[in-house]
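Deviations from the work plan: none for this task. Representative record:
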Amino acid sequence: MSTLAKLFPARSGRAAFLVRFTLAAATLLLVAPALLNDFRLGLLARYLCLAIIAVGIGLAWGQGGMLVLGQGLFFGLGGYAMGMHMKLEEAAAQNLDVPDFMSWSGVESLPALWKPFESAAFAIAACVLIPMVVAALLGTLIFRQRVRGAYFAILSQAMAAAFVIVLIGQQGLTGGTNGLTNFQSFFGLRLADPADKRTLYLFVVAIFLGVFLIARQLVRSRYGKVLIACRDAEDRVRFLGYDPTLVKVVAYSAAAGMAGLAGALYVPVVGIMSPALLGVVPSIEMVIWVALGGRTVLAWAAAGAIIVSWARTDLSERFPSGWLYAQGALFILVIAFAPKGLAGVSEALQERIKTLWKRRTRTPEPAQERELEVVA
Amino acid sequence: MDVFLSQLFIGLSVASVLLLVALGLTFTFGQMNVINMAHGEFVMAGAYTVYVLQTSVFSASMATLAFGLALPLAFLVGGVLGLILEFTLIRRLHGRPLDTLLVTWGVSLILQQVARDIFGAPNVQVKAPPFLDGGITLAGVSMPYTRLFIIGLVVVALVAIWFYLSKLPAGRRMRAVVQNRDLASASGVRTPRVDRLTFFIGSGLAGVAGVAVTLLGSIGPTLGTNYIIDAFLVVIVGGLGQLRGAIIAAIALGVANAYLEYWTDASLAKAAVFGLIVVFLQFRPQGLVVTRRRGLA
Amino acid sequence: MARLGLTRLLAILVAAIVAAAAIAGCGSSSSESDAETSGSTASADAGGETIRVGILHSLSGTMAISEVTVRDSELLAIEEINRAGGVLGKQIEPVIEDGASDWPTFAEKAQKLISEDRVAATFGGWTSASRKAMLPVFESNRALLFYPVQYEGLEQSPYIFYSGATTNQQIIPGLEYLKEQGARSLFLVGSDYVFPRTANKEIKAWAEANDVEILGEEYTPLGHTEYGTLISKLQDARPDAVFNTLNGDSNVAFFKQLKGAGVTARDMPVMSVSVAEEEVAGIGPENVAGHPVAWNYYQTTDTPENRRFVEAFRARYGADRVTSDPMEAGYVQVHIWALAAEKAGSTDPEKVKEAARGLTFDAPEGRVRVDDVNQHLFKTARIGVVEPDGQIREVWASDGPIAPDPYLRTYDWAEGL
C-alpha cells in the first residue's frame, strides 16, 4: 500500500481512500485468487479472519486506548457458536443424536446449551451478539470502576485464561482440549471441495471489507472523536459531560463483536476451533499484530495481522527450529524502535521522499514541530 | 486428618510460592510500572542456575553446597539479566507501559528458545538437598520440609526487603522515586540509577524464586509461563507496589485456591479464583492497599 | 505529520539487517542439519529423484519437551534406510515442520506437507488433540499419517497408522497388573484433556467389572504446578494404588510433591502411562523410583534389535541420551512405511495401505505386526518399575504381542463405551 500512498498523498482525502480501497479490494478479490494455489488461498482466508480481529483491536486499543489482551475470549465465543451449529448440522445429516465427540465423552442426549444452535439464524446471530453482550457486561463492570491501563490489560488476560480453563474442563460440552474439529460443510459448501473453498474465500473477503468499512466509519464519526478524546484525556472528557464508560463500552463491545465474527468465519476456513487458539499466548499475539502494523491506523492494523501471520507461516516453514528468534526479534525491534509500527515507517519514508523531492525543487522549509506521540 | 488445618497449610505454601515470584514484580511492576513479561523467564534462569551448578561446577556429592550457593548466584543471574533488559530496552520505553509489556513478551519468547537451544527441550533434573527430604507432622498436618523451606525463604526475603526499604538510604531513595518521581528528581535523587537498582533487585528476586520452585516442579524452558499470570494477579490484587498488599493477596489467593480445590477440582478452583478477582476489583479497583495521591491519573 | 528522526530510521535499518542476519544464520544452520540428516549419501541423490516424507512434531511450545525426541528417532530411522539404499531405489528426504504445540497449526502444516511438498507419508503428532486436528486433513486428501504415541483408543481412521499402544495394550495390562498385586481400590489422577478423561472412562468400566473400587477421580489443568491439595485428597482416600494419566510437566510437580509429602511407592504405588525414560530424567529418578509404569518398550528391553537401536541412537545424538517408548514407536513406524512401500512397489497411499496389511517387523520391542483391519500394531505389553538410576526394569510382560482392539470389542465390560 505504501507505493499507492505515495501516488495519492493523504490530503486528497476521500477520493484517495476510495482509490486505495478499490485497489485493495481488487487485489483480494481478483488478483489473489488468480495467483495463489488452493492451499495458499486457504491460508490467506485464515489471515483475513485474523485481520478482522485486528480491526477490532485497532478500534478498542488504537482509538480507545484499551489494551485488550483477552480477545481470545470473544474470538472463541463466536467460533464455538458457529462450530456448535455446524457440528449439529452434521450430526443431523448422519442421523446421530449428538455430535461425535460427545459420544466419546459419554454424553448421550443433547445438552440444553446446544439446543438453540440447531437453528442457523440463531447461530449466526449468536456468534456476533454473544461476544458483544458479554463484552458490554464485562466492560460496564470494569470501566465503571475506572480500571484501566495495565490493570485492564492483565484483567482481560485473566478472563481469557479462565475461559480456556472452563472450556477444557467441560469436555462433554465443548470437546475439551481437542475443541471442535472434523467439519464437513458450511451452509451447503463442502469444505473439502476446492471450488467451494474458493467461494468461501470470496465470502471472507467480502465480510472483511464490510467490517473494515464499518470500523472506519465509526472512527470518522463524531463518536470516534469522543473515543480518541477518552484515550488521550479521559477525565477531561468526563468534565465535558460525556460518560467515558459508555463510550469505551461501545468500542470494546464492537471489538468483541468483530472478534466473534472472525471466530465464526475461522471455523469453516480452518476447520477447527480449540482452546489452544484462545488462551493467553494467542491473545497476546493478536495485539502484537496490531502493534506491528500500526495501532492508530485501521488499515495498517489489519495489514499487521496479515503480515505477521504470513511471516509466521513462512519463517516456520523455512526454519522450523529457529523461527521463534526471528519472531521475537521482530516484535522487540518494531515495538521498541518504531512505536507507530509499519504505518509509522511507511509514513516516514513518504516524508523523506517528499523532502528529497522538495529539496531538489526549492529551499527546505523550516523543520516542523514533532507531534506528540500517542501514549496508550 | 484435620482438613481445615491441612488445607490451610497447603494454602500457605501455595501462597509462599506465589509471593516469591510476585515479590520481584512488586518492584518492577509495582514501583516502576513496568509490566515485565520476561519475569517468568528470569525465574527459569534461576532454576537453570541450580542445574548448571549441580551438573557442571560441583560433583554430585556436593549437591547441597551447590543448592546453597545457587541462592545468591541466582539472585545475581536474574539481576544481571534484568539490568541488561533495563539498559537495552525498558529505559527507552519509559512512560509506555503497554509497549513494555509487548516488548518484554518478545524477550520472553527469545529467552525460552535460548534455554531450549542451550539445555535442550526436555526437562532437566535438580537434586534437592538431602536435609529437605521428609517432613514433620504437627497437629495432624504433615508439613514437608521443602514447603517449610520455601515459607522460610519468603520470610527471610520479606525481612530483607523491609530492612532495605525502610532502613537503608538507597531504599529510602527508591521509595521517594515511587511516591513522586519529579519531586525526587528535583531533590537530587538520580532517578535513572534508582530505576536500574530497582530492576536489578526485582529481577534478582525472580532468580531466587527460580531456585525455590526447583524443589516443587519441573525445570524446563517453559517453566516461567506456569507462574507468571498468577504472580501478576497477586500484584494487582495487592495494589501496585504494595509489599503489604502483595503479602495479603498472595495468602488470600493461595488459601482460597486450596480450599476451593479441596471442595471442587483444580480446574474449577482456578477458574473460580479468576472470577473472584474480577468481582473483587469491582469493589477495590486499585487493589487491597492504596496509596492516596492527589491529582488525576 | 509526525516524522521519524534520522536516528530512528537508522535504528530500523540496523534492526532489519540484524533480523536478516539472524534469518540467514538460522538458514545456514538448518541447511547444515539437513545435510547431516541426509547423511553421506547427499551426493548420490543429487542427480536422481528423492522421496519426500513429512516429519510434523512440535519443536516449540510446551509439547516440544516430548516431541523433539521422537523427531530425533524418526530422522535416525530415515538415515538408516537411506544408508541401506533408500526406498524403491530412491533416497528419502525428510521435510520437517513445526506443529508449535498448537493443534490448528498441526492441521495447517499437514495440509502444506500434502499439497505443496507432496510427501509420500507423514510421521507426526503426539497429543490426541493434534491427531484429531490432523485427521480430517489426511482423510480428505487421502494421505497417510503415522502416529507414534499411545492413545485413548476409540478411533480407527483409514488413513492413519497407529504405531503406539491402544488401550488394551497398555492401560488394561497396567490395571490387571495392579489387581494381581492386590490393589482393590484405585484413585485416578489425570491432566484435564481428552486422553485422561477417555482413558478413565474405560478404567471405570473395567473397575466395575473387576470389583475394584474407584475412590476418586481428579483432573488438573495442563501445566499445573501445585499438587498439595490433590495429594491430601489422596491421603484422605487411602487407595491401594493410584492410576496416573498426567501429562508432561505436571508429572514432575506431582512426583516431587508426593515424595515431599512422605508418600512412598510402597504405601501407594502410582501406575503411570505417560512417564517414560525421558520423563524420569526430568522428574529426577529418586523422586519416582519404585513406582510402576506401563509401556511396550523400555531402553532395557532385551532384544538384539534394541541393543542396536540404543547404540545407534547414542552414537548419533550423544551418549547421555535415553530412548523411550514413543521414540521407539517413531523409529519403528518409519521402517514399517519403508517396508510397505518397498513391498507395494510404490508410495501411493492406497497401495502402501494394502501392502502394510499383516506386515511384520523386528522392532526393538520385539516383533510387531500391522493389523489387517484397524492399522494398529500388535504389541507386547510390559510393566516396569523405575530404578534409582533412571532406567526402567521390566517386571511383567504379556505372552507375546497383544492384538490391538481400539474399540475394546473383545471385552464384555466395555460395551456401551
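The CA atoms of residues 78 and 127 of chain A lie 4 Å apart.
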